[in-house]
Amino acid sequence: MTNKFAWIMSPNIEWEDKKDLITTSLESGIDHVLDLKDLKNIQKLGNISVINPDDDSDIILVGIGGEGDGTLSLDKDLNNSQDLATAKSLKNNGKKIAAYIEIASKSHEQLAVAIGKIADYIILVGKDWTVIPLENIIADLQKRDVKIIAAVSDAEEARLALETLEIGADGILFEPKDFTQIKEIAKIVEDTSSNSYDLKEATITGIRGLTSGDRVCIDTASMMNIGEGMLIGSYSKAMFLVHSESLESEYVASRPFRVNAGPVQAYVMTPGNKTKYLSELETGDEVLVVNKDGKTRPVVVGRVKIEKRPLILIEAEYEGLKIKTLLQNAETIRLVDSKGEAVSVSELKVGDKIKVFIDDSARHFGMAIEETIIEK
Q: Residue ranges of the 3-dehydroquinate synthase C-terminal domain (predicted)?
């Protein structure tokens, strides 16, 4: 599942009131604003992308006039549409564009599909949102590199738009009414972006201490709860749920922002069902936090610490599939057992059940593909 997102359409109100709504949106993780009047003022507020017809905007808006007086032109011959020509010209000049389309007929739907083959984003608007043929447009453009945004009026419509079909719209656009609505819709976006992994129970078959290796700690910009960790493994097709350091220990204080993940060659699961080598991670990257039930959330890497530490080899088996991973050999390093509880690698025994993720796909440069790759 790809991450969902929200944009706001700033209301036509005084700048000071508008500024407060935009600032709250930014604090809630919504960093794109469609605005027709205050481009320069908004750009001063922070790292915000502004969608506007002006050439200086971050994303150029096609299909709505500077006074908000229209939508994409509807020509009988779509191939001769002036808006299509404008979109092509902007795209050829390396511009990022968003097309604003009011869906009022089958012809508007066809126009949306046509310009969706050119634009980076298409914003679908309707007086009665529930009759917009979102499913058809998603299906027609599913193989195109375009993000489909549904304009919605409230939280209920936002959830419906993001969950249409198995895919749903990539994002939503809404005009915020108040601060509470912004936070409510931001939470819906976060929830619908959350992927879930079907965790299996593997049986420990071997535990063996090893010499030292370069071990990676992932310090994130988020706090993790008990029961949360990251999917880590020596094999991209079979990864262990390594618990965060959110538990107290008699040896060290809890560090709920950290996962002691293992040596540099191991994989970690990242958003979009992709993986990275631990050695590749840098400040600002995103990784997935996974809880004992397989539910995920993306977090930002704040720091990566690589230090030489003694290692331990963990071997397990699931339905005849033998899997392995390396971890630091220390009492504070924990996996998650079949009951969803953290268990230290120093206490693991042959026959214990621990939670793992088994992927049927092979991987090429971290992306799941249909191919046979042998890892041992």
A: 202-376
